[in-house]
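Hi Prof. W.,

I finally got the NAD-dependent epimerase/dehydratase domain-containing protein prediction working! I wasn't sure whether to trim anything, so I left the full sequence exactly as given:
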Amino acid sequence: MSRNLVVTGAGGLVGTALTAALLPAFDRVLLLTAGAPDTERLRRRIGRVLEAAGTDGRDGLLDRVTALPLDGLTPAALRGAGLDSVAQVWNVGASLSYDQDKLAATVAANTAVPLRLLELCAPDERFFHISTVGVTGPGAPARRETVPEAPVWRPDAVNPYVLSKLLAEHMLDNLRAHTGAPVSMLRLGSVIGPDGHAAVQDNRAGYYTLVEMLAKVVARRAALTIDAEPGNAPPLAHVDQLAASCAALADRAARGAEVAAYYHLGDQTLTNAAAADAVNAALGQEVLRLGPPATALDRAYASVNADNVAFMSCGFRFDHAVLDAHVPAAARPRVDADSYARFVTGQLARLTARRGARREAAVAA
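And this is what came out:
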């Protein structure tokens, strides 16, 4: 019998890297998308990650990948895609909204999808649900406690996204406890580009947006002030290391080894002040400083940043005891000043090259 994998959110930063890391271990991979899928585009994205990591995806590996719209998922659709059974499900996709007016829609999307996936796919090995560290409570800057790998710790449901993720965890955990369903929650910090190789995907989410703002700051010889607590250490993870950790957990599930219900993926090796110092050192000037926002170079960015950075400037630290026991040390997500600076400078170089190519094309036209 073939081992089959189902993944949601495979077109995003985390989902693409994760699918590439898991692909060699499965006979068939079904990607579920929010709208009509562009299977060839999804394959190309996964292929770029494989090539950057030194794996040739053209040798039949990408042929294992197929896609369906999430709304069209039924038992018949699964069979039609060649999946008579499902070994693992990785639920990476989510509806991201901080708009309180979209609370009902966000909760519906982020709770109904994982429950439906678990029911329809009924994975033999494990259902891995990508959650967010926010469910452990962003907390106050003065809070300096350790968060165990366990059910929710002092939740602060500050926006629809966190609230919906919190509710999804509760529902999945109840199913796990009452039915014995093989469910694991993986709580991620903020995910940035790869440490092991140059970024190969265009993605405007999270820290990629910050890099684009830094590019504007550098071009204007100005400084960008962000509203973050200097001493706090928001959890960060490089996407390639994150994918390697997930692949290690997937392998444990495949071998029938113990797999825990909760994991925290994302280390806290940098304070906000250390991250700013790393950026400034890498760019050769002071371009980033911490404190109350002074000049909004981009009002949309300033608005999002005010919510995101304040939300992620948490005062807790993670207990990685369970993760350390289950994942090789080399695969544990870590971000240090050098790797953070490499990410920033690498992304700036890509942005500069892309803008230069656009200018040349405009002149030629």
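DSSP finds eleven helices and 13 strands in the chain. Does that look reasonable to you?

Thanks,
D.
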